[in-house]
Amino acid sequence: MDLTKRFNKQLNRIAVSVIRQFDEQVSGIEDVIKLTLGEPDFHTPDHVKDAAHEAIKNNFSHYTGMSGLLDVRQAACYFMKEKYAVEYKPESEVLVTVGATEAISASLLSILEPGDKVLMPAPIYPGYEPVIYLASAEPVYIDTRSNHFVLTPEMIENAMAEHGNQVKAIILNYPSNPTGVTYTREEVQAIAEVLKKYPIFVISDEIYSELTYEDQHVSIAEFIPEQTILINGLSKSHAMTGWRIGFIFGPERLIAEVIKVHQYLVTAASTISQKAAIRALVEGMNDATTMKKEYLERRDFVYDEMTKFGFEVAKPNGAFYIFAKIPSNYEQNSMKFCVDLAEKEAVAIIPGIAFGEEGEGYVRISYAADMKTLKEAMKRIGRYMKS
């Protein structure tokens, strides 16, 4: 009996991420340097690990409530208020999720219906589109290449004029994966002024907020809290990718609906991880500072080297990525370029096509690797470009 044709037909529109596919494809290359995945090379701080050990010892091995432990939610709200001047009630306006990925899925599945449209600045992280398709909705990409990957109020106005009442939401991701670009206070406020004119949700994925370099991160929830579904987590700020702790912040009525989806997706986040999260959010509030200092040094090195090689780069001011335009006299098919580089010089970087059509002709480098590794990688890329 063949049941393959009875799957959800929306699955035909999605596939395993190109990022993961490419990473696996090059993993078998001997001595390969992989600058592919968006994962900190730092370890989780010891005091956070100690909190997890204590939780295990004290038998915190049972379910928590669906929203997560109250003391975790209190810590998360404290963190957001101290860091970004946004205030939420821990009892009803925050939800602990299984990483920011589940937060994205739960949020989108809570609001989208067949025929809805979602605006997204492009190029963009490929984790949103599949969930939009699974909800039988449609993504609408706003090309930001002409403005160094910065979304403008005018771009939003044009998209709204074209798609009108079909638009249910807009997704913001800043600092951005893959470009590392983020927004000034003035830019965030200007975007908020436009969005407040429309009855749409603003899903703001700010998972890289603690890795903002020149200026303090500004959350759009500061300006339009009633529209904003604010997503954050500990994966990037505290090098806790495997602990799977994320957060959704929003108005009480919104959280009351999102929790319905969250409950049936995961029940609740890991209790041990939640206990560790309290330590990270309170005692480790500034744990990202040391990491950020090293990331900044790496950014400057990789930026300078790639520029010397002839790549055009919008200098990132957040996250840990360089998104570089392949020089015009080289192969412009980003997948072919990256495969050739990996096969000839054993350096793996992500083809820009992984981030949509607007990413074609670019490559993404994760500089979440130590300086010794980055220097060797740049040496190999330089040799490849000369050959």
From TrEMBL:
Phylogenetic lineage: Bacteria, Bacillati, Bacillota, Bacilli, Lactobacillales
Organism name: Enterococcus rivorum
An annotated GO BP: amino acid metabolic process
Top EC category: transferase
Name of the protein in question: Aminotransferase
Cross-referenced PANTHER family: AMINOTRANSFERASE (PTHR46383:SF4), ASPARTATE AMINOTRANSFERASE (PTHR46383)
Domain called Aminotransferase class I/classII large: residue spans: 31-381
Family the entry assigns: Belongs to the class-I pyridoxal-phosphate-dependent aminotransferase family.
EC number(s) on file: 2.6.1.-
Keyword field: Aminotransferase, Pyridoxal phosphate, Transferase
Requisite cofactors: pyridoxal 5'-phosphate
